[in-house]
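2024-03-11 09:14:02 INFO worker-7 job=invfold-0412 stage=load source=structure_tokens
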């Protein structure tokens, strides 16, 4: 008796609307997907999912291979897009960022925002074909119920 197969859509003609770099934290995955689709109207994106998102940018002298790998991945994916667009997202309460930087929590928010701005400038310089770079911070609102406690702040 043959096992029943489940089939899923394959979008052969789908182009990449954007390359998106965000953290692998499972608590934020649904929010990231919904934000990209609902607020930014991005249907097809090439995700680069890395613990700590762009945290290697702030440590480029200590972790140059991480930065080079991220740059190479973005550059490869951008060449396959309709119009090169890069979206970089960090989030609050990032355990990977916290571990990498070993700094106090109140300074972490500023460090993440500064690194996003630095990453945007760096990737514009390293990948001249990038037409558009946007950066966002996923923020936690403790006043809201857990299932709707994330909002996105545009930094650039």
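2024-03-11 09:14:09 INFO worker-7 stage=emit residues=156
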């Amino acid at each position: 008796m043959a096992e029943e197969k489940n089939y899923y859509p394959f979008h052969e003609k789908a182009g990449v609307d954007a390359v998106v770099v965000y953290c692998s934290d499972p608590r934020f995955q649904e929010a990231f997907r919904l934000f990209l689709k609902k607020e930014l109207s991005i249907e097809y994106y090439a995700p680069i999912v890395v613990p700590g998102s762009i945290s290697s940018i702030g440590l480029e002298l200590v972790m140059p291979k991480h930065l080079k790998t991220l740059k190479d991945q973005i550059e490869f994916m951008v060449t396959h897009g309709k119009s090169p667009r890069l979206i970089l997202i960090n989030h609050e309460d990032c355990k990977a960022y916290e571990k990498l930087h070993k700094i106090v929590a109140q300074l972490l928010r500023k460090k993440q925002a500064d690194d996003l701005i630095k990453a945007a400038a760096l990737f514009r310089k390293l990948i001249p074909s990038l037409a558009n770079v946007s950066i966002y911070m996923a923020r936690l609102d403790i006043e809201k119920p857990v299932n709707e406690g994330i909002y996105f702040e545009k930094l650039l």
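2024-03-11 09:14:09 INFO worker-7 stage=report msg="The two ends are 57 Å apart (CA to CA)."
2024-03-11 09:14:10 INFO worker-7 job finished
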